[in-house]
Amino acid sequence: MKYTRRGVVVPVVAVGVLAALLAGCSSGAESSGEATVSAPKSGKLTIALLQKQGDQQYFVDEATGAKDEAKKLGDVEVKVIDLGTDANKAISELDNVIAQKVDGIAIVVPDQKIGPQVIDAAKAAGIPLVASDDAISSGDGKPAPFVGFDGHGMGMEVGKKAAELYKAAGWTAADTRIIAGWKQDLKTCGDRVQGAAEAFKEGIGGGEAPKTIELGTDNSVGDALNKTGAALTDNHAVKHWVVWGCNDENETGIVTGLQNGKVAPDNIIGVGLGAYLTCKDWKAGQTTGNKAALYIGGPAVGSAAVRVLTENLRGQKPLPERTIAKTQIVDAKTWQSSGLVCT
Predict the structure, then answer these.
(1) Residues in CB range of 226: below 8 A, 6 or more apart
(2) What are the residue ranges spanned by the domains of the chain?
(3) What is the pLDDT of residue 10?
(4) In terms of Cα–Cα distance, which of 319, 285, 1 is closest to 132?
(5) Where is the signal peptide (predicted)?
(6) CA 174 to CA 15: how far, in whole Å?
(7) Helix 187-203 and helix 151-169, axial crossing angle in degrees, nearest 10
(8) Average pLDDT of 317-329?
(9) How far apart are CA 186 and CA 179, in angstroms?
(10) 229 φ, ψ to 5°?
(11) Using CB atoms within 10 A of its CB, is residue 164 exposed (0-12), middle (13-18) or buried (19+)?
């Protein structure tokens, strides 16, 4: 696949990197980001936060966290730009903020394949850049400094909880199906779903695992919901369902699709990833198939991205290779005490 930049068609290389605690943790791997502290900048700083799917609640929260951190640091402005799912728009908006001479860039790419272009453009302009949420690499495979979560580790937490609930329910593989929904060309999603499957199998103690139905989605609630209908039709004799996915959109969409198909909430074990949508049923006191979720704080990632960029720009610290935010499993009884704000 190719994307255009300034009217020139540039080939891109598909690469992926596993992101591996909120204070920043170096893996020892060479990074394509600047290894040294930037020449100190005084006065006001402007940081561009370019996000895919900026209307999703997680990314709204991430932007809020970035702006709140900027206020806390003082004399820092954050420009938030929604890229939707358009990789070409990501390149053009990147060009725009570079032309505006922003001081730093945090980007959540719509497609990891544009990583080399993104990294090269920022490097040529002398602007420090971090990749948030979805890791990107240069053409020779060197990762950009990363702020976000460990995708495989997050998935394992989801799978571990799903296995715990499955065993407690006393269900069997014969009358149960697992539905996993994710955007299948996004490596970050693949890492999460693979981690969930591995931890689930380990969590049930080596017994026979239910068969898995894999739903390819665009990571939205609507697409996951619509595709669940067909899966339910093809498996009408199945009594119990275990659900997970790349994000809360997939998991809640699938659970809603099952419930719309007359599957009782007691026959659904849905474990979300994000908690920002699963919490809505809990907040409303509804009986739901959304039994638990891994709370990933978007605000923490936005805050960390602005902080590490500012520290670099002020000449205080080099950009960490990896800054990984904390996660925790929550449910209807614990989500409020976790600090999760359910809007």
Answers:
(1) 257
(2) 2-144+298-325, 151-296
(3) 36
(4) 319
(5) 1-28
(6) 38
(7) 40
(8) 94
(9) 18
(10) -55, -45
(11) middle
Structure tokens at 65: 């966290």
Instruction: Quote the pLDDT of residue 298.
Output: 87
Residue pLDDT, tens place only, 51-87: 999 998 889 999 999 999 999 999 999 999 999 999 9
Q: Are strands 45-52 and 76-84 parallel, antiparallel or unpaired?
A: parallel
Which helix H or strand E contains 111, and what residues bound it? none
* Size of the chain, expressed as the number of residues it contains: 343
Cα–Cα separations (whole angstroms), residue 296 to 106, 125, 172, 274 = 18, 33, 30, 5
Half-sphere exposure of 206 (CA within 13 A, CB side): 0
pLDDT confidence bin for 341, thresholds 50/70/90: confident
Residue range 151-296 in CATH 3.40.50.1700: no
pLDDT of residue 292 exceeding 90: yes
**Which tokens in the block code for residue 76?**
């820092």
Cα 65 to Cα 225: distance, rounded to the nearest angstrom: 29
pLDDT recorded at residue 12:
36
Of residues 297 and 101, more confidence is placed in: 101
Residue 14's pLDDT band (boundaries 50, 70, 90)?
very low
Summarize the confidence of residues 2-28 as an average pLDDT.
36
CA-based R_g, the chain, Å: 21
Are residues 283 and 253 in contact, defined by beta-carbon separation less than 8 angstroms?
Answer: no
Residue 16: per-residue pLDDT = 32
Residues ≥6 apart with Cβ < 8 Å to 264 = none
Residue 312, amino acid? N
Q: Is 326 helix (H, G, I), strand (E, B) or coil?
A: coil
Q: Residue 47: beta bridge partners?
A: 78, 104
CATH code given to domain 2-144+298-325: 3.40.50.2300
Residue 27: predicted pLDDT: 34
Judge whether 2-144+298-325 and 151-296 match in fold. Answer: yes
